[in-house]
Write a structure and sequence with these properties.
Layout: E1 2-6, E2 12-16, E3 28-36, H1 39-46, E4 62-69, E5 81-84, H2 94-97, E6 123-126, H3 129-132, E7 133-135, H4 142-145, H5 151-161, E8 170-174, H6 178-187, E9 194-199, H7 202-210, E10 215-218, H8 223-230, E11 236-241, H9 246-255, E12 256-264, H10 276-279, E13 285-287, H11 296-304, E14 314-318, H12 323-331, H13 333-336, E15 340-344
Parallel strand pairs: 8-9, 8-11, 9-10, 11-12, 12-13, 14-15
Antiparallel strand pairs: 1-2, 3-4, 3-6, 3-15, 4-5, 5-7
Length: 354
């Protein structure tokens, strides 16, 4: 089969690799029908995730069809259309029993495209299939569902829930990329009083307004001053960091009010300064986290009922064999306007990128 293989920082190739096979009774093999590229994949290619070995097939998000299942698999069978979760869960360890699947100590957690071969391929082996695959109703399009493999549960769990967004809150989302936009969309579940989006790209700020931001500000135009003006000098109740660079994390700590919460979602490749000389007296709570995907069934229900605007984030579509071109488009989002890039068989009402 063909797959996108990592060969060290800055080096990938779409090449022939061996077909995956069942290695454990709990495994399933899935034919990949729809796949997407994550910002974390870009971090891997840059060399920010040194645990990823040369020769690894990348990717941790997909929708596909089960073609084989081990004898221990009970919830899916060949022919089922499924969502492949970015997190694999053994279901038995202490953390899995607490629904903290991202911290699984039984061989799961974030392993696809990280510690084992991933989804940016024609086929993928999925460990712990019973908890790591979600059967999809026929009414849900693959293009919509694939965004629930990672970015929507990440934004919802690590941003909105960890930030304890509540009715009436002022929420600042720093970074209006795919995860930041998903945070804006899911924060609206809790009827905050105001959502403010911050980004350097005007196209992404426009997308933020479309998805429910009440105010937007370019990061180069004193966002802290806007937050101060809109909150009467108090600051934001919740600041969601959705970029993963020191400057955006530090901005979040500046715009949050005393007693507020900073929810860090971004993947950081460099140290960020924690200004405890300013924060220690302000009762600020800072949370970090890897997604657990415990919310995926809920989000799938919301998607099926038309209450989750996932398709609005898809800006570019490619056939699977144009993976390297899709990476270039996604990596140059400031120039291309890319939000989410989806690869696979296109829906009948869409046009594949030329």
């Amino acid at each position: 089969m063909k797959a996108l293989v990592f060969h060290g920082p800055g080096k990938t190739s779409w090449q022939d690799v061996p077909d995956p096979a069942i290695e454990d009774p709990a495994d399933a093999v899935v034919r990949v029908d729809t796949v997407t590229i994550c910002g974390t994949d870009l971090h891997i290619v840059k060399g920010d995730v040194p645990e990823v070995a040369s020769g690894r097939v990348l990717g941790h998000e997909a929708v596909g069809t089960v073609v084989d299942a081990g004898p221990g698999v009970r919830t899916v069978r060949p022919g089922d259309r499924v969502l492949v979760s970015c997190i694999s869960a053994c279901g038995r360890c202490r953390f899995c029993r607490e629904n903290r699947y991202g911290q699984c100590r039984g061989g799961g957690g974030w392993i696809l495209g990280h510690l084992v071969d991933g989804t940016q391929a024609e086929y993928v082996r999925v460990p712990f299939a019973d908890l790591s695959l979600h059967p999809l109703p026929s009414a849900v399009r693959s293009e919509d569902a694939v965004l629930l493999a990672d970015i929507f549960p990440t934004a919802y769990e690590v941003g909105v829930l960890a930030g304890q967004v509540a009715p009436g809150d002022t929420v600042v989302v720093v970074g209006a990329g795919p995860v930041g936009l998903a945070a804006i969309a899911t924060a609206r579940f809790f009827t905050p009083g105001r959502i403010i989006a911050v980004d350097l790209a005007d196209t992404r700020l426009a997308a933020a307004r479309e998805l429910g931001a009440d105010a937007t500000v370019n990061a180069a135009e004193e966002p802290a001053k806007l937050v101060e003006d809109l909150t009467g000098g108090l600051g934001a109740d919740v600041a969601v960091e959705a970029v993963g660079v020191p400057e955006t994390f530090e901005l979040c700590t500046r715009v949050v009010r005393p007693g507020g919460r900073v929810a860090n979602v971004g993947v950081h490749g460099k140290p960020a300064v924690l200004h405890l000389e300013d924060l220690w007296i302000r009762d600020v709570t800072i949370t970090t986290g890897l997604v657990d995907t415990f919310s995926t069934p809920l989000l799938l229900d919301m998607l099926a009922s038309g209450r989750l605007p996932s398709s609005r984030l898809v800006t570019h579509r490619f056939p699977l064999d144009r993976m390297e071109e899709a990476y270039e488009v996604f990596a140059k989002a400031a120039d291309t306007g890319a939000l989410k890039v989806v690869l696979g068989e296109p829906p009948h009402d869409t046009v594949v990128a030329a």
